[in-house]
Amino acid sequence: MADGRIDFTKSGVSRFPDRDLGVPRFSCEVGVPLAQQKELGHNRWHPDIPPLFECDPGDEVILESPGYDDYQLQDLDDDQDIHTIDLTRTHPITGPVRVRGAEPGDLLVVELLDVQPLSGIGYSNVLPGMGGPLKERFPRGFKTVWDLHGIYATSRQVPGVRIPAISHPGVIGVAPSHELLEQWNRREDPLIAQDQAGPRADATATAVLRTLEGEEWQRVAATAARTVPPRENGGNMDIKNLSRGSKIYFPVFVEGALFSCGDLHFAEGDGEITWNAIEMDGAAWLKFGLIKGGARKYGIRNPAFRPSPVDPNFGDRYISFVGYSARGDEQRYLDTTMAAVDAVEQGIDYLTRFGYTPEQAYTIISVAPCEMHVGGIVDIPNAAVTLSIPLDIFDQDILPTP
């Protein structure tokens, strides 16, 4: 970093000020759970959630939101909060925004003009029982608190690294139609029964549905979808390069599109491998457009996007690990998940040679702008996945030496 290899020369990084920009801004009260400021948004997907705001194509809006944890985590070294967090409260998102003229079959075009933190504190915990594909290796979990300073994040729990910002919304999307929501529930219910998807029926008590109350709240909460997975509407896509400067094309399923976003991230590696990025409360500055009939014309059934031009520039300054769908006596046919985990485990074991604990190494790989790519899925029987860790986030040289 000292030699200037990390730069944001393409980005025009700015922090939009608190002054009046002539843009409607919906403010989040820092430290207050969504249920206590429920007019701001929701934490489930459903087409009958009342809109927060209505605008025309071409309009802009700033949406503030709590972090993914709904202010359950604290800036303390004590890690009790990661053992007691209620995951049914995760992903408080702000909206919906109703865009006039949007109809099913259209494309809603969302330009992500900027994303900035609110409190300046971030979290990237390995949660007990929820630590991604390596959760069995880290059953106790690991808590990390990050201080967000301008375009860099540092942590007292993971010393010796400085993570550059590549800020983006983890959850961003439009409302499903009633028919699409029913389809989601049909296909996910068997997985819920096998503990392979987030619970719905037994998690309704913590559903926040903006201003709905009483019988209407009960009706909507009973079938509303959890925000944990990404789906056709977008949702929890967790794509690190869907950052400031991106343009996202969402197929529209209901009149007005009903757009919402939240779960903002300061930075993240491909795969968000621990289940956490550097999570933060923050503000997203957005501009809306509309392509009439665009979803039908271009055959777009899931969101498409133009990636952000805002990227830390590491050049060729990475060390890359190759994982396969074969290890020791275990062999799987073109299993990219196994190959990805194999690459990550090599990265973890490598970083422990430089003084990091396995928990710290796992966290670094999840939150730093690491690149993960499918190297091959045709050379049967082995898939290959590469994991590239940027060298210049460290305050020491981590390349192999003679």
Automatic annotation (TrEMBL):
Signal peptide coordinates: none
Any matching Pfam family: FmdA_AmdA
Name recorded for this polypeptide: Acetamidase/formamidase family protein
